[in-house]
Amino acid sequence: MPELDSATVDKLADTAEMFLADWGEGFSFRRKPIGVGATAAVFEVSKKKAKYALKIYSERLYTGEKSTAQLHRTKLQEKLIGHDCKSLVTIQSIQLYKSSCICLMEYLPWDTLKKCLAKIPEDKIQILVDQLIDVIDYLKSVNLIHRDIKPENILISPDFCSLKVVDIGVVREISGAEDRIDGTDTGKLRPFLATAQYSPPEYLFRTFEPSEDLWNAVNIYQIGAIVHDMIVQKPLFDEEVHSGNRYKLALAVLRSKPVLGAAAKSRESRLAAIAELALIKDPVLRNDLVKISDFRTPKSERASEALAGILGKISINAKHQSKLNELIEEKERYCSQKIETIVAATIASIHSNFEHSLKCNRQKSKSTLHRQVFQIKLPARQIKESFFLEFDEIVDPTLDEINVILGREHGSTTITKIVGTMSSESDLLEPGIMTHAFEAICEQLKANIDYNGL
Ligand SMILES: Nc1ncnc2c1ncn2[C@@H]1O[C@H](COP(=O)(O)OP(=O)(O)OP(=O)(O)O)[C@@H](O)[C@H]1O
Ligand SMILES: [Mg+2]
């Protein structure tokens, strides 16, 4: 939805000023808005040197058919006055005034996440994500869901250490009477409330009846989208949004699979992997694969152990199988291509006349989906005997085992194949980590080939 136009904002400023005069609490008012959204304008007001943010909603929400639902949401916001969630904006008061509604909140002179996306330091991402999860969990504990988690509704402190979620204008109850009162998520007419760019397909197209599971899937997707934006440093479906064609955007929400792998550096790879799963289109599969708590800083010292724990919890049933296979195959294709290129390039650099016919066979073990065997066959070459002994030291923790299978040819020791079994953790990690291990092997290869024999 587009932002309110300046004439509407001007009118809202008049109403806000009138409200403050009628209220008689001695607030002074600044006419220049500090923020404008699709449904409201936010102004700075102050009293005895303390600053507050005053949000005034567009009158169209509180008049006509939609007003019953809107009044219900206003009541829900009222319940949040005095909440104790540090990362959720605090509300001082919310009052109906003339044909509008006015909310007084704490003022946060911070940038929106949208504005500072490209500036978030890598080591602050997890800290900020933890705070976002605090908000989602808090709202859940009082049976509410925000529904409009997006970078415009998240404010970030200048040191990038704190985050606050604002704009609780479309909160709703997760379960309970609201389905009857609200009317926005049930029935034939389901007006779209949140933002298309950050809505999962089932929510954008309203293909599901509201349920706790649906809301959980929406939460997971929206957290995944925020993690995506922080890691990729660009908004989700940015190109489609800029095309100005809303059908293109809708199609992307429905079909286009965001990939974080290439942008994720090794320290972020755990969050990136979880976000990729969180952005899966199918809400049932999404709910099965990701828990909101997976986004939190792992309690265990080793992130890889925590990841293994997550993988351990995943139980796959036949319904999910084909979708999962698609994901896994894509990742496998990427890995084997990368490995082949690295090994081929290394061998070529060792000796230009060196003929190589490289084969990378992936064998999936039947017992678990997260175990893959990469088998690289190198043509028989001479290597130093000591090479075998040094191998242990270069084994990457994400590899369960690496075996170098040695053979004999014309009286010399040769490598016939290298077999690496990826540990379950590596499945969810950025594929680059796996190739890292193979790069290390190639380095060892280089150092140990007996050039005299070639
Ligand atoms: N408490 C606050 N302190 C400082 N700035 C705020 C505060 N609340 C909101 N803003 C700013 O005002 C903008 C609009 O506010 P808000 O998101 O609540 O309006 P909205 O019309 O409901 O938005 P939407 O377009 O998501 O419906 C925000 O994006 C943010 O930049
Ligand atoms: Mg907003």
UniProtKB/TrEMBL annotation:
Do you know which SUPFAM superfamilies this protein is assigned to? Protein kinase-like (PK-like)
List the SMART domains: S_TKc (SM00220)
Q: Quote one Gene Ontology molecular function term.
A: protein serine/threonine kinase activity
Q: Name one Pfam family in it.
A: Pkinase
Any idea which positions bind ATP? 55
What InterPro entries is this protein classified in?
Answer: Kinase-like_dom_sf, Prot_kinase_dom, Protein_kinase_ATP_BS, Ser/Thr_kinase_AS
Provide this UniProt record's keywords sorted from A to Z.
Answer: ATP-binding, Kinase, Nucleotide-binding, Serine/threonine-protein kinase, Transferase
Among Gene3D superfamilies, the record links this protein to:
Transferase(Phosphotransferase) domain 1 (1.10.510.10)
| Domain Protein kinase: residue ranges | 28-296
Q: Does the keyword Nucleotide-binding apply?
A: yes
Keyword check for Chloroplast, yes or no: no
Q: What is this protein called?
A: Serine/threonine protein kinase
Lineage, uppermost ranks = Bacteria, Pseudomonadati, Verrucomicrobiota, Verrucomicrobiia, Verrucomicrobiales
